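In this section we walk through a basic example: taking a raw amino acid sequence and producing a predicted 3D structure, encoded as discrete structure tokens. The instruction is simple. Fold the sequence below.
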Amino acid sequence: MAGVLPDIDEWVAGGGRMRVTTRSRGFELFVRQDGPADGLPVTLIHGFPTSSHDWSVVVPHLAAHGCRVLTLDLLGFGTSDKPRHHVYSVVEQAELVEGVWQALGIGDTALVAHDYGVSVGQELLARDPGRVRRMAWLNGGLYPDLHRPIAPQRLLHSRAGAVLVHAMTERRFTSSMRQVLARPVADEDLHAMWESVSHDNGHLLAHRLLRYIDERKQHAARWVGALEEYPGPTLFVWGPADPISGAHVLERIRARLTAAHIVELAVPAPVGHYPQVEAPDAVAEALTAFLTEGAERA
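The resulting token sequence is shown next.
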């Protein structure tokens, strides 16, 4: 089968590196903007262990419908800085996103997040819910008690993780990815995802980046509260066949967030953990309708 993701080098060539400073130090992040300069601001936040390239099929659809789309590689991911001995945290990632917003003059924005990115999104909501005009979530650990990491994640998150990362190869990465995907994904797309993970030996940071699992537990009350108390329009675009955060999470979402709009990607076949890669057209359609509806009402 043919791949759906565009060439990763072309994706990177469409953006650039930006210096962003937190309270502790400065980093260079890969940042990209697409769509009309005066378009509706939309920020897309990617997941672990990949990069903003995950969104590369969805972005043109949003841009074509008048959205000004910001994508970035979080610290430790893709072509952003990957400091070797850094203590990575979701809280710092949120500070960096805020720094990018400030540098680009972005005020209110719609926010779309997947996987690791949902924790960054929840931290951003907890900080300033009024800044987020509307929120869309794709499969991720919104409720820490429902998170079900697969075996490779558990091993990398264990005390042995610092050693095990050195055994990570593209073949093992591909095998792990296929455990969480439900629809067929082309080998070339998985290769492109591996390229973003392994760029500058980023795969050696997996055990450090997986600290977010502990942060989710540490900030559970605050982050779940931010999700459930968010007053703006909310959309969930969800793959129910995801073993990590699939139908069992969707069940709680339906029970707790009764006003939210839900698009369950189950036809013609259930989607797994990467909706924007497994079913990019359906995701683009759902996000476009949701985001442009907001523009019409503004």
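Looking at the output, two observations stand out. The chain is about 40% helix and 15% strand. The mean pLDDT is 96. In the next section we compare this with other chains.
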